[in-house]
Design a protein that fits this description.
heterotetramer; A: Elongation Factor Tu (Ef-tu), domain 3; Rossmann fold; 2 domains; B: alpha/beta; TIM Barrel; eight-stranded parallel sheet; 19% strand; binds flavin-adenine dinucleotide; binds flavin mononucleotide; binds FE2/S2 (inorganic) cluster
Chain lengths: 263, 306, 306, 263
């Protein structure tokens, strides 16, 4: 694993939180040093006060950063104690984070059209990507997978960024195509000429999309998730199997070429 | 308050202060370069390496528990050669400013010997080597090599033949006094302890381990009082120096190890959550030594009153 | 959700549910009468008693540590006779509603035998006896009687001659698989574990132990993952029932012990801070069993998937 | 040890705190069930939220109770993590306590004049006693030992309760007699005819007063402190040596006849 270049322990203040969907929060953080450095697909490791028995930090991607305001927005699903505490931190809470961490999304030269697939809380890490593609004038389509219609998030923001196509799938069929994102991605990669597919979501979803892309001959990048002890290459708890041997999700990823990952 | 001399000697490894890093929690030092002054530490111990690269265990490899964590990294490492290729230049430069200790991993006596021989050849800058004798011993039915006095002394005796540089032997948290004596007898220059304590965490909804294996190693503040007791037992059992490890979060935690007789201490999990924790521990340890009115930290070694 | 049959049999001790109390943390039950329905538990285990009263250790006898506590009560007890005088009527009445387990303490084989003989005579209402074989062995230099397979089986073999009622043997957290097999061999009807883990806490300002002795026993959530691992080892080593103890705060903690193969569980330190903790643990354990869709808790015993 | 009779887990709300002296706090609690039951010398064991690593409760005596308002006042010195957290609990914090616990001060029949000695945070447990003696129309004198003049607490309250004599000793001599309370208690027990001496404070102070009383032939009661695992007789961590063998400070005390204690 290669050492991170610019990671630091940075002070951060919670600016406010609001529910995005049931069990989903969006939280705004003041962290100027992070806001001006972090790149789409990178993450940080935040210390969440409130339960002194839990020492480990929580890895978080970001949805958007405003370097001029020094703010970073995150979106997360409440899945356990840490995310529950994070959701409840009052405005003004001061804590710290280690970041920016990892390697972000990469942009193949001459890319003209890309497909972005986000599933569940995996939508967060692709939002910053969508913003970047928009600024790069790359046409992008978005497929969002949600459990149910109320969990479709950031729809307005995605449309406002200029997604040329926006498809929704829901597990329960309450909106868009019933099923997982793979249900529509197969058709899309066959019919549209994507230079690159970007995917973040549950592991089975990413594996499925990687397989579809492999068959269609379209390059695919995925952003992986594992438990992380440190986030900066010190502990090896995050290592996964790749065709290049074990690699650390925190420093070699979290973004990997799908072809590299042994699923 | 006047300055305290913090320099110590860990069985032939010179340390400008007693603070070392616990193997596996500090990468190979380089990962911390942006976040602290690595060279200010008394020593830096890297992840254990074997003669051949090891993949370690599948995901998940960690789980948080009350005041600690479980890990089952499984001694994943790039092999001694791979490590030297990637970190050799960095560690060689670092070795001019602090002692670099290279850790040796193995599954059998032969593997320890092979790894140590490679190290001895490829890392002339290493101040000494640490033998991690608490990894699963495949050639002896899966029990930890270091879990019996006989197994432990066999490894140390053979490794002793391989290098003239100092050998620190890292003990598992089991049968400490017996095994400590055995490894001193077999030629160890110093002892370090404890390694993680075997433990379990089960997701009772799925009835499966939270990790890819049924058991994993517990570290962090939860184990600190146990680690201090075991370090005390080791210090009472041997005459060679001891490096205390386990749940050190503050200078006071480190001071307990010094008081029971340890020459040095290693910071583990704390560095993972607070990268510069070891430097803070060092500062706090020095402040404590000053508050105790000594001029040399060694006056506090074993100064526990009982 | 439909009702789950929670009744279990701990080596001949009938328990209407798997929740027991850890010796030394629950007085003799009576202390909790105003604060919970003691008779709703599956069993109640009292403080260990010896043939003669013991004073135990001087103050200080406890110190709080991260996610746990150290105690060095030193098995203070009023003697079997004193206990029966003071709590006999209460426990006899209680024994009509739940199983009362009397714990036996001793410093030598003879002391265990004497205490058990007294119990056998004076406590006809006891459903069974628990031998705490982790007390310091005065006749063998202060090491715990239960710290070797030989010592442990000697105590159990002799005690087996004294009573026909069920004998639970409580193990120290050391060499668990060997000692578990040894005590089954010697005639134990069930095993319970773990007792507290020897540990230290030092006031680095005064350089003295926070307790009246250098080491003391660690209990509480800090030891839970270690206790589950040791219970798993015990369950794999023996065919007699096992009662899991260590850091149980919730029904999920208790469920981990059931999953690794325990028949029952005991709540310890939790009862000291939340008197009705054992009742809450029971309720949560039952809810978990329901959520797992079983009709009998025994379907979950040993149902850990690995 | 005898089982407590009326101890229960009771909900409690923090009504407010203010500094009483440097490092000393007074805190008002709403706990109607406790306020109408607790007797001078008894205590309770309170759970102090804020650090999930620390499970044990903190034993506390009370200064005064108002059964009509359902309030209880405590006064304590900040000595460690638990008392530091207790001092910082915001108004409105809800927690719980186990109480009332232990046996309180006893009042010999026909008592007409008593001496109350409080040292440091030991002043708290004797305040409720002073109130009781006032209501019983027993004449009482008070000796308060403090480290320094600024740490003399509850002076107005003690005078208002009608103490017939109020003496202060300070370790540094900044007020009253320089030295420990023993410096004046010797003279008082020799010259005044006390039916009973009551003492609470650091162990050496209580030992010294017990000795003076023994010599003067005046009965003395002390309120002892030890670490407590449970507070209600379950764990035996609080046992001390007495002429009647080991006894539990939590259920047999905390008030003991000084003659019973092996110091
Ligand atoms: C690089 C990276 C970026 C990430 N970015 C984001 C992001 O932008 N948004 C986002 O929402 N998440 C993100 N995550 C995931 C996020 O870090 C985790 O959701 C978070 O760490 C969970 O912490 P926790 O303490 O709440 O849960 P934990 O308690 O640590 O639980 C972790 C998992 O275990 C399960 N679990 C926990 N407790 C129990 C229990 N008692 N019984 C059964 N199962 C249990 C939960 O379902 C959960 O999935 C990212 C992760 C990584 C590695
Ligand atoms: C029956 C009874 C009634 C009581 N009533 C009162 C009362 O009314 N008012 C009152 O003020 N107190 C009272 N106390 C004492 C009070 O309970 C203790 O002060 C409190 O429990 C301390 O808790 P803590 O967590 O703040 O300190 P802890 O952290 O538990 O420390 C306890 C002691 O250890 C020492 N200590 C703590 N940490 C360290 C360290 N790092 N290094 C060295 N020493 C350390 C402290 O000096 C302290 O004296 C009473 C005690 C009892 C038993
Ligand atoms: C993620 C992780 C990886 C570890 N890897 C090693 C290792 O390679 N070799 C070793 O001897 N100990 C290893 N350890 C154990 C630590 O060096 C240390 O002995 C243990 O964590 C106790 O210290 P702590 O409580 O301060 O973390 C590892 C610990 C952790 C948490
Ligand atoms: C204050 C205290 C006293 C104890 N006394 C005894 C005892 O007399 N006999 C015994 O076998 N175990 C004794 N124990 C150990 C407990 O029964 C239990 O094994 C241990 O505390 C672990 O469980 P826990 O983590 O749930 O507390 C005692 C524990 C504590 C905290
Ligand atoms: S989390 Fe990747 S190395 Fe620690
Ligand atoms: S504190 Fe007195 S018995 Fe537990």
């Amino acid at each position: 694993m290669s050492a991170p270049s610019n990671a630091r322990v940075l002070p951060v203040t919670i600016l406010g939180s609001e529910p995005l969907a049931p069990g989903f929060m969006r939280t705004s953080l003041a962290c100027p040093d992070l806001a001006c450095q972090i790149q789409p697909g990178q993450f940080f490791n935040i210390s969440v006060p409130g339960d002194a028995r839990e020492l480990l930090r929580i890895p978080m991607s970001y949805v958007g950063a405003d370097p001029s305001q020094g703010t970073v927005e995150i979106a997360f699903r409440i899945v356990g104690n840490g995310t529950r505490r994070l959701a409840g931190l009052p405005t003004g809470t001061r804590t710290d984070l280690i970041g920016p961490l990892g390697h972000g999304w990469r942009y193949p030269e001459g890319m003209r059209r890309a497909l972005i697939v986000g599933g569940g809380s995996g939508v967060a890490p692709v939002m910053a990507l969508a913003g970047r593609l928009a600024r790069m004038d790359v046409e992008f389509h978005v497929v969002q997978g949600a459990r149910t219609s109320r969990e479709v998030i950031y729809e307005n923001e995605i449309r406002a960024l200029g997604a040329a196509r926006f498809e929704v799938t829901t597990d329960d069929g309450s909106r868009g195509t019933k099923g997982f994102p793979t249900a529509v991605v197969g058709g899309l990669v066959a019919s549209e000429c994507y230079d690159q597919v970007y995917a973040c979501g549950p592991q089975p979803m990413m594996r499925g999309i990687a397989e579809l892309c492999r068959k269609a001959g379209v390059p695919c990048m995925v952003s992986l998730e594992t438990g992380m002890g440190c986030g900066f290459g010190a502990c090896a708890t995050c290592a996964i199997d790749t065709v290049n041997g074990k690699r650390g999700v925190c420093v070699d990823g979290p973004v990997f070429d799908a072809e590299e990952v042994i699923w | 308050m006047s300055k305290v001399n913090m320099a110590v000697d860990l069985g032939g490894i010179p340390m400008k202060n007693p603070v070392n890093t616990a193997s596996g929690t500090f990468g190979f030092g380089k990962q911390f370069e942006n976040m602290m002054d690595v060279s200010a530490l008394g020593a830096v111990t890297g992840k254990g390496c074997s003669a051949q690269p090891w993949p370690g265990n599948p995901q998940p490899r960690m789980h948080e528990v009350t005041s600690g964590m479980l890990n089952s990294v499984g001694l994943m490492n790039p092999g001694v050669r791979g490590m030297v290729e990637k970190y050799g230049d960095y560690l060689e430069a670092l070795s001019g400013k602090t002692s670099v200790i290279c850790q040796v991993a193995g599954h059998s006596v032969q593997e320890y010997v092979d790894a140590l021989a490679l190290y001895d050849e490829l890392t002339p800058w290493a101040a000494g080597f640490e033998l991690n004798i608490s990894c699963p011993n495949v050639s002896k039915g899966g029990a930890a090599m270091g879990s019996t006095p006989e197994g432990a002394s066999e490894v140390v005796r053979e490794c002793r033949q391989v290098t003239n540089r100092p050998l620190v032997v890292k003990l598992a948290p089991t049968r400490v006094p017996e095994i400590a004596s055995a490894v001193q007898e077999a030629g160890a220059d110093a002892i370090s302890l404890i390694n993680t304590i075997p433990a379990m965490a089960i997701d009772v909804d799925t009835r499966r381990s939270y990790l890819s294996r049924p058991t994993a190693g517990l570290s962090g503040p939860a184990i600190h009082p146990i680690a201090v007791r075991m370090a005390w037992e080791a210090c009472n059992a041997v005459t060679i120096p001891v490096c205390g490890i386990g749940g050190i979060m503050t200078g006071r935690d480190a001071a307990e190890f010094i008081l029971v007789g340890c020459t040095a201490v290693s910071v583990g999990m704390a560095s993972m959550v607070e990268p510069a924790a070891s430097i803070r521990v060092l500062r706090e340890l020095e402040q404590w030594a000053q508050s105790q009115g000594v001029s040399d930290i060694s006056e506090l070694r074993g100064a526990f009153l009982c």
